[in-house]
Amino acid sequence: MDRRRVSLLGLGLVTSLLAAGCSGDDADGGGHPLVIATTGHIHDALVNLTEGLPIELRLLCGPGVDPHSYAATTGDVSDMQRARAIVYNGFHLEAQLGEILEQGPMSGRSWAMASAFPVSRVLDWVEDGEIDPGAPHDPHIWNHLAGWSESVEGLVSHMATLFPEHAEVIVDRGATYVDEIRAADAWAREALSVLPVERRVLVSGHDAFNYFAVAYDFDTHAVLGVGNDPEADIRTMQEIAQICADKKVPVIFLESITDPKVTQALEEACRGRGWTTAIADEPLYSDDLGEGAPVDTYLGAFRTNVERIVSGLGGDAR
Fold first, then answer.
1. What is this structure's pTM?
2. Are 170 and 219 contained in the same domain?
3. Cα separation of 114 and 111, whole Å?
4. Is residue 190 part of a domain?
5. Is residue 271 part of a domain?
6. What is the largest CA-CA distance in the chain?
7. Residues 43, 47, 52, 53: is their CA dihedral positive or negative?
8. Are 208 and 181 in the same domain?
9. Which of 185, 208, 223 is the last residue of a domain?
10. CATH number of the domain to which 88 belongs
C-alpha cells in the first residue's frame, strides 16, 4: 500500500478519536509525568536516561509490532493526550501516526529522533527508481550507531529541558549511554572485520539495513520495501534470487517482524537457479526489539544481529 495513503488513514483515525471525547489535556494524569515512546529503540534510550526518576514511560510498539503499520487505539490516544512528551522516530517510520504527531494536535508535545540525526548521514528512500516526496528518507536510522548516538544526544537535551529538576541526572546518564553506543559501534567493526568483502552481502525480508550496510561496508538486498508489505512482487523476488546465486549468498535472514513465507519463497527461487541459500536459524531484529535479555535492549539486539550475521556469512561458500 502507498505509504502516503497509510499515513492519511492513520490521521483520520486519530482525529476521529480525538473528536469523540479525548480532548482533555491533563499532561501528568495526576501522577508521574508520562513520556511515550513509539519504538523499543527509543524506549530503551528513555529507560537509560530516566530509570528511577519519577517519570512514567510507555511503549507503543512492543516486540512483534511493526511501527510502519501501527494503528493507535483509543487508549493510546488518551495516553498521548495526557503525556508530557511523545518521542517518535520520524522519517515516516510511524506511517499512520506521522502526520498527527508532526502537524496535528499532538505536535506541540512530540519530538522526533530524526530531527537530531546528522543530515550528512541521511539516506534517500528509493522505490521503483523514484523518491517518494512524501517520505523521501530511509527511516531505519538506529542501524547507524554513530548517527543514532547524535539522535540520543538530541533526546538528552530535549528531556533535560522538559524535566529541569532532573536535568543533571539525565545529562550524566545520557553521556554514559552515548559512550556505550559508540563502544558498540567500535566492537561491531572489529567483529565484522572477519568477513571478507565478497561475503558482505546481507539479504533480508524487510529493507531495514541500508544504514547498517553503509556503516559497515555491506551490500544489502531485501524482498520487501521499507514498509514491510506482506507481499513481494515477482520481479523483485527473481532479481534477488539471481543475486543470491551469482554472489553465492549462504543465508537469507528472516526478521522478527517478517512473514516467513516471504523468505521461504525466496529460498525456493534460489534453488531454481542452482544455488542453495538457507534461511538463517535465528532472526535479525530490525524495527522491534525482542522479549527477553539480551534482545530486549537496543544494544543487546544490535550485538545479537552482528553475531548472527557473522555466524551466517562467515563460513566458506558452498
1. 0.87
2. no
3. 9
4. no
5. yes
6. 65
7. negative
8. no
9. 185
10. 3.40.50.1980
Statement to judge: residues 56 and 91 lie in one domain: yes
| Per-residue model confidence as pLDDT tens for the chain (318 residues) | 344 333 434 444 444 444 443 343 444 445 899 999 999 999 999 999 999 999 999 999 999 999 999 988 999 989 999 999 999 999 999 999 987 888 877 899 999 999 999 999 999 987 767 888 888 999 999 999 999 999 999 999 999 999 999 999 999 999 999 999 999 999 999 999 999 999 999 998 778 999 999 999 999 998 775 444 545 567 788 888 999 999 999 998 888 766 667 667 778 889 899 999 888 889 999 999 999 999 999 999 999 999 999 999 985 443
In a domain, 75, yes or no: yes
Shortest CA distance to 71 belongs to which of 142, 6, 136?
Answer: 6
Residue type, 312: G
Distance CA 152, CA 187 (A): 19
226, three cell numbers: 521499507
Whether residue 294 has a cis bond before it, omega within 30° of 0: yes
How far is residue 255 CA from its own chain's centroid?
Answer: 12
DSSP class of residue 37 equals E
User: What is each CA distance from 162 to 26, 33, 106, 138, 188, in whole angstroms?
Assistant: 16, 10, 16, 28, 34
Q: CA dist 222 to 95, 99, 129, 253, Å?
A: 20, 27, 15, 9
Domain-embedded: residue 90: yes
Structural domain harbouring 100: 3-185
Q: Is the Cβ–Cβ distance between 212 and 144 less than 8 Å?
A: yes
The helix (run of H) or strand (run of E) holding residue 313 is helix 298-313
